[in-house]
Write a structure and sequence with these properties.
Radius of gyration: 20 Å
Number of helices: 6
Number of strands: 2
Structural class: mainly alpha
Strand content: under 5%
Helix content: 55-70%
């Protein structure tokens, strides 16, 4: 993922937390805490056999989704390509493949968690406002909504990410995510960009809308 040396000289990353040792350690810590917390939730649901309720099914999917994204965050800078142009102080020993894998895990897991939170809102709306029976939700609505979420977030979006090379290192994240690489390549015709800035902007807006839905 090398770019011309003159481009590197133009980049100013002073006072950028993400590139420091702290920027490496913080995601490792928060990722581990999030992973363990979700694992505890899964173990409690499994131990008390509460999987029969719609609420606990939703929480189970949400916890699994969080585990997937938490692992990606925990790895921090490690999967980032070793020849990355940004001066990360954390270890970068990966490749384009490992970077893409980390980004897919983070984006898929976090997006699925957000979508599952929306499913939880739907659950309470149907149960409290429209008096839909628990059995009806479990047998018809939950499988349909979960399958739709998986097809869009777990299948369709990853294909888009990979085909358009949208997952790359960013100087403003400690892990690979949606980003144009290298930064500023859009304004320099001599440098080939990985990723489409307009496409990425549209996807980010969609994620923000989902988050606040």
């Amino acid at each position: 993922m090398e770019i011309p040396a003159e481009t590197k000289d133009d980049m100013d990353y002073s006072d950028n937390l993400y590139l420091t040792k702290a920027g490496f350690i913080i995601p490792c810590t928060t990722g581990a805490i999030s992973f363990l917390s979700s694992l505890i939730i899964i173990s409690i649901i499994w131990k008390f056999r509460t999987i029969s309720t719609g609420y606990h099914r939703i929480m189970l999917v949400m916890a699994v989704s969080d585990i997937i994204s938490s692992v990606a965050v925990f790895l921090s800078t490690v999967p980032i390509p070793s020849d990355v142009v940004y001066p990360f102080e954390g270890p970068t020993v990966g490749s384009i493949g490992t970077c893409t894998g980390q980004g897919l895990a983070f984006l898929t897991g976090s997006s699925m968690a957000i979508a599952t939170n929306i499913t939880l809102n739907i659950y309470y709306l149907l149960r409290l406002r429209f008096r839909v029976k628990e059995e009806t939700f479990n047998k018809m609505i939950f499988p349909l909504v979960t399958a739709a979420n998986f097809l869009v977030i777990g299948v369709a979006l990853p294909v888009i990410y990979i085909n358009n090379e949208l997952i790359n290192p960013s100087p403003y994240e400690s892990f690979c995510t949606l980003a144009v690489y290298p930064r500023g390549c859009e304004s320099n015709k001599e440098i080939k960009c990985r990723g489409n800035p307009q496409f990425i902007e549209s996807l980010m807006i969609a994620v923000i809308v989902m988050f606040f839905a």
